[in-house]
Amino acid sequence: MKKLFSFLLPLLLYSNLFSQNVSKKVIAEYEDTLKVMAHGIMNGETEEQRREFHNGFIKELEEVLHYKQSFRYPFDSLITISCLTSGDNKFRLFNWILKLDNGKYQYFCLVQIPNKKKNENKIIHLTDNSENIRVPETEKLDQNNWYGALYYDIVYIKKKGRQYYTLLGWDGNDGFSTKKIIDVMHFAGRNIKFGHPIFRSKKQVTNRVIVEYDSKTSVSVKYHEKGKQIVMDHLVPVKKMLEGLHEYYVPDGTYDAYIYNNGKWEHKENIDIGIKEKSPPKIKKKNQKGLLPR
Predict the structure, then answer these.
(1) How far apart are CA 286 and CA 294, in angstroms?
(2) Looking at residue 230, what is its pLDDT?
C-alpha cells in the first residue's frame, strides 16, 4: 500500500504545481490518479485497505472538483463511480460505495455546484446516517443526515417555483434484502434537503419511497420520460404467510408506477406499460458498465 501511494505522490505534486492555471490535461491527470484509487475502493482485500484508498480518493476528488473547468469534464474512466448531472445543469452528483467487512455498505456523495460569481465550484459532502434513520419514508433529511444510496438517475421535470429533483438509487442493505430508493432533493439557501411529501398512494403520503425485496432477485425501478412515470415491478411475498417480510418479496410479472401530476407523484397499481417508448430511459454509459443492477 505504501509503495502505491509513493508512486502516486509525484503525480499529485505535479498537479498541484499547476493549480493556478488548470487545464483539461491537469484534470485528466487527476482522473488517472482517481481511477487507481477507485479501483482500490472496490477491490481492496480488507476493509482497512478499501478505507485507505477511499480517504485518498475523496481528498483528491474534492480538490479537482473545486476547479471551475471540472464541471464540464466527463470523468468517463471512473466506471465504479456514479456521476450524474441534473437536467438543468445546476449540479452534479459524484456517488460511490464502500463495502464493509460485515457485508453491508457505506455510501458517499459529493455534490458539485458551479458558482458563477467565484472562480471555483462549491462542493457539499453528504453524510450517510442510514443506520440511525428508523422510518425513512417519513423523515425530512439534509446533507448531514442523509439516507445513503447509490444513485443511478436524476429525474428533472421543469416547473415554476422551487425545483425538486427526484433521485433513483440502489441500497445493498444487509445481504438478505436489497432496496431501491426514490427520494427528493432540493436546495434551501446553502443547504441541501431530502424528502418532501409528494408521493401519494391510497394509504398514505410519504417523503420518499423505499422498495425492498429479496436480494437474490432483480427489481426494476426506472423513469419513463414519455408519460412522466416511474415504473417498477410489483412485488409480492413468495408465500402468503411471509407477507410483511420484505426480504422474501419478488416480482409477480405486473407493474406499478408513480405518475407525475401537478408536482406530485401519484401511485397506480397494475399499469399497462405497453413498451410504448421506442427506447429505454437515458442512462449514462458509465453507469451501464458500472457497479450494480438497476
Answers:
(1) 13
(2) 98
Place of cell 425538486: 164
91 close to 111: Cβ distance less than 8 angstroms:
yes
Q: Please list the alpha-helical segments (H only) found in the chain.
A: 2-17, 24-43, 47-66, 285-289
Q: How far apart are CA 231 and CA 221, in angstroms?
A: 6
DSSP 141-196: EETTBB---EEEEEE----SSS--EEEEEEE-TTSSEEEEEEEEEEEETTEEEE--
Closest among 142, 107, 109, 111 to 124, alpha carbons compared: 111
- Residue 14 burial (CB count, 10 A): 11
217 and 207 in contact (C-beta within 8 Å)?
Answer: no
pLDDT confidence of residue 22: 79
The pLDDT value given to residue 244: 96
SS (H, E, C) 2-26: HHHHHHHHHHHHHHHHCHHHCCHHH
Say what the pLDDT of residue 1 is.
Answer: 55
pLDDT at 58: 98
| Residue 178 contacts residue 191 (beta carbons within 8 Å) | no
**C-alpha cell, 113:** 455546484
Which amino acid belongs to residue 45? E
> What does the block give as the cell for 222?
426506472
Q: What is the pTM of this model?
A: 0.87
In the chain, which stretches have pLDDT less than 70? 1-21, 275-294
Please report the pLDDT score of residue 21 as a whole number. Answer: 52
Helix (H, G, I), strand (E, B) or coil at 49: helix
